[in-house]
Amino acid sequence: xxxxxxxxxxxxxxxxxxxxxxxxxxxxxxxxxxxxxxxxxxxxxxxxxxxxxxxxxxxxxxxxxxxxxxxxxxxxxxxxxxxxxxxxxxxxxxxxxxxxxxxxxxxxxxxxxxxxxxxxxxxxxxxxxxxxxxxxxxxxxxxxxxxxxxxxxxxxxxxxxxxxxxxxxxxx
Length: 172
Ligand SMILES: *Cc1c(COP(=O)(O)O)cnc(C)c1O
What we know:
- By secondary structure, the chain is an alpha+beta fold.
- The protein folds into 2 domains: 2-106, Type I PLP-dependent aspartate aminotransferase-like (Major domain) (Aspartate Aminotransferase, domain 2), CATH 3.40.640.10; 110-166, Alpha-Beta Complex (Aspartate Aminotransferase, domain 1), CATH 3.90.1150.10.
- 35% of the residues lie in helices and 17% in strands.
- It is built from 5 helices and 9 strands; from the N terminus they run αβββββαββααββα.
- The radius of gyration is 20 Å and the shape is elongated.
- The mean pLDDT is 94.
- Pyridoxal-5'-phosphate is lined by residues 18, 20-21, 42, 44, 46, 55.
């Protein structure tokens, strides 16, 4: 992020952060999604907070905010009793029911991250003696949406996946 922000500043480019899987992640005392003017989050079922489908955009820029409001609702404005189509847009509206699902989970987000951090520590403990795999850094602020390991080239990834599936670990 430091490098990206440096380049963006040098050339006066806006940063749109794909923080889809980083909800709750903290880096340099800042939340993922807030490094540039705009950050995007996903609430897909794979993520730690889910609404089934959908996501959220955060921005510190009022113009971007108003533009997103327009684009997500067919580019329609409504004022003085009249509709107008002011720019091309689509239906990106989230339903209230899905938003309600997300709000409940957002309240539990820190609890969820604490649990995931505990799991990550456990994985670290259990996997640290194994040869030929590189484990992720236990960086503070990590939200552990996924626990990724790197297998060195002498290890066959597909047979590791097969082995894990045999042990009942099929969500990979
Ligand atoms: C999940 C994910 C996406 C896709 O999110 P959608 O809700 O399917 O659009 C994009 N980028 C990253 C980094 C992700 O983790």
